[in-house]
Sequence to fold (62 residues):
Amino acid sequence: MMELKKAVDRRKRQLINRLIKAGFTKTHDGRQLYELPLADLERLHIDYKCQAAPQFEIKQVN
Fold:
């Protein structure tokens, strides 16, 4: 069971670091990133990636 907690904590740290690099420090409701559960961090990260995606050009290879 400790391995699962370690894996969750590692993933949370990874997501928090990525979100901070992207300019996030708090959620829209004022909570700090470290206060969020893993699921909320994952959702925030996915939302950020979806918003950032249109700026990248996709080239089709024939």
